[in-house]
Amino acid sequence: MNKQKYQLRDVTEDDYDFIYQVKKNAYKKYVEMNYGEWNEEQQKEYFKRFIETYKDGAHIIIFDRQDVGFYNGCIQDGKYEIGNICIIPEYQNRGIGTSILKDVLRDNFNKEVTIQYFKQNPVGRLYERLGFKLVGETSFHYQMVKDK
């Protein structure tokens, strides 16, 4: 495993297509499981609203001099909310997401940190290992929090 540390850079408009494809790759199967289909037009409209709302807290993840994913998070009501950590398949299972999560927890040690994920996504085990506790759920998501 390459121990090189990831880097983050702010998202620009030039990154929007890349981010959409990374999100689509990460979430399409879960959207199909929960909603029955991936409607491309609808998903592009959701993405447009998402990126306009969260672009200031969004970052491209760089690893080994390659854009390998994106991350977004922000402070909401005094808590740090992790929105997405999405990494392209070729760079998954290299500890990049775990490193980002650990850094977020370190940088926000004085705040509760929240995250939610699709119930079918096995990532919950990672969150539990890092100290997140299940605090709620919706029809399709689990919600977790790491206390300060």
Would you give an account of this structure?
The chain is of the alpha+beta class. The chain contains four helices and seven strands; from the N terminus they run βααβββαβαββ. Strands 1-2-3-4-5-7-6 form a seven-stranded mixed β-sheet, with helices on both faces. A hairpin with a 2-residue loop joins β2 and β3. The longest helix has 20 residues, at 16-35.
- Taken as a percent bin, the fraction of beta residues is 25-35%
Q: In which range does the helix fraction lie?
A: 25-40%
Major sheet = 7 strands, mixed
Q: End-to-end span in angstroms?
A: 31 Å
Strand order, sheet with most strands: 1-2-3-4-5-7-6
Mean pLDDT: 95
Rg of Cα set: 15 Å
Give the overall shape. globular
- In total, the number of strands is 7
Low-confidence stretches: none
Write the layout of secondary structure elements.
Elements: E1 7-10, H1 16-35, H2 40-54, E2 58-63, E3 66-76, E4 79-87, H3 96-107, E5 113-118, H4 124-129, E6 133-137, E7 141-146
Q: What key attributes describe this structure?
A:
148 residues, alpha+beta, 7-stranded mixed β-sheet, 7 strands, 36% helix, globular
Summarize the structure in short.
The chain is an alpha+beta fold and 148 residues long.
